[in-house]
Amino acid sequence: MQRQDNRAQNEMRPLQFVLNVAPHATASVLSCFGNTRVICSVTIEEDVPRWMKNQHVPGGWLTAEYAMLPYSTLDRKKRDSSAGKVDGRSVEIQRLIGRSLRAVVDLEALGARTIWVDCDVLQADGGTRTASITGAAVALSIALNRLVASGALEKNPMRCLVSAVSVGKLAGTPLLDLCYVEDRDAEVDMNVVMTERGEYVEVQGSGEEAVFTADEMAQMLALASKGVADITAAQKEAIARADRPAESDFESLRSFFEGR
Q1: Which of 29, 172, 204, 259 could form a disulfide bond with 191, CB atoms 3.0-4.6 angstroms apart?
Q2: Would you call 55 exposed, middle or buried from its count of C-beta atoms within 10 A (0-12, 13-18, 19+)?
Q3: Does residue 251 form part of some domain?
Q4: What is the pLDDT of residues 174-208, one digit of tens each?
C-alpha cells in the first residue's frame, strides 16, 4: 500500500533529538518523530517521596508526568487544570513512561534521589507516548551522566537504553511508526517498548473493531524490533553530543522548524 508520506512499510519517520531546550532542567530533549514533537525534561531532586521514608525503602525513585499542550492538536485541547483533574489517557501514558524508564534504572544505586520526568507534547501527529518514552530515555541518560561527572554518583545507574515505537495493520498491511492518519484508520494499533538489547518492557496492542493473527503479530513485533534498532542508534548519537554548547542545539532547532 502507498503510505501518506511515501515511506516504506518498515521505515521510521525522520528522527531528531534536539538537546538543551529547557536550560533549568538537569537535562532536556525535544523528541521529534516526524511531525510529532515532545519536550522531555529530567530534573533530579535530592530527596525521596514520603512513602519511601515511611517504609524504609532503600535507594531512589523515578516518576513521570505527561501533558498535551492546548495547541498540540488540530482542535484546541482543553488544559487538565480547566477540568480540575488529569484525564485518564494522560494518567495511563505517564504511568507507562514511568514504568518504561524504571525498568532500566537501578533505583537502589541511584541513592536517595527522585528523578522527575516531564513530557510535554508540542505537536501531535501520532505516537506521542512513544516519542515521550524515547526522548525521556535520552534526557535521563544525559542527566545521570552529568550526575556522575559532578561526582555525585560513582557510575550511571541506567543499565541500558529504552525506546518505544508504534506498529499497526492498515488495509491488511503491517506498518512501522504510524502517523496520526494511519493510527486513526488502523485495524490494529500496537505500542512496543523495548530495550536496546531487544528485550520487551511492555507491549500494548488491540484490534480496532478487528482481529489479528499470531503471524500478523509476529510481523508487527519484527517491525518494532527494526524500528527500535534505528531509534537506539539515533539516541546514542544524541547522548554522545550532549556536552556541546547549547547554542548549537538551538540553531539545530531553528533550522528544523524552518525545514532546512
Answers
A1: 204
A2: exposed
A3: no
A4: 999 999 999 999 999 999 999 999 999 999 999 97
